[in-house]
Amino acid sequence: MANANDLRKGMCIRYNANPAIVLEVQHRTPGNLRAFVQVIIRYIGTGKSADVRFGSTDKVDLVDVERKKLEFSYKDQTGFSFMDPENYETITFDESFLGDTKDFLTENQQVEILYVEGKAATIELPSTVTLTIKESPEGVRGDSANNVQKTAILETGRTIQVPLFIKEGEKVRVSTADGSYLGRA
User: 2-62, which class in CATH?
Assistant: First the structure.
């Protein structure tokens, strides 16, 4: 057990009998009222976020967390295979575990797997990834009034909106948070 004042971003706590990751912490002391800690958490099992308020002296149950860096190797009918670079052990996860993160994985890409109480709980990607445009129609000449965008398909199969000047085969930076185009790589 730890005090709510000791909470930091990235810690894992047990709230309402479910493990959750702390996304944001704010310590508040409003005027003549008691101090409190405002915390935004994301439940590991469901992925849903919640805004929680603790008193500054409240006790919080911490959960054992292990972060392991793995390297994405390949995808086959059994699932997505990752290699542990320390001991070269292969670990396979099914598609349901990865969710939308599978749309940002390329060979030899480093990811971080979060293990809660010995079980793989979530996968954490870097904030941006560089991917190649596999398919993109030509932009219509003269159709450039204000930030006109077109649909493009990435090498992983994900569809995103890109500016008209982007062509097939180009490498682009994509945000893993919302899948938006960030610029050329």
Answer: mainly beta
Phi/psi class of residue 4: alpha, beta or left (left: φ > 0; alpha: ψ in -120 to 50)? alpha
- Which residue in this structure is represented by tokens 């560089």? 130
**Mind listing the pLDDT tens digit for each residue in 153-185?**
999 889 999 988 888 999 999 998 888 899 888
CATH superfamily, domain 65-124, is Nucleic acid-binding proteins (2.40.50.140)
CA distance 34 to 184: 50
Angle at 178 between CA 177 and CA 183, to 5 degrees: 95
Contacts of 180 (CB under 8 A, 6+ apart): 160, 161, 174
> Fold match between 2-62 and 65-124?
no
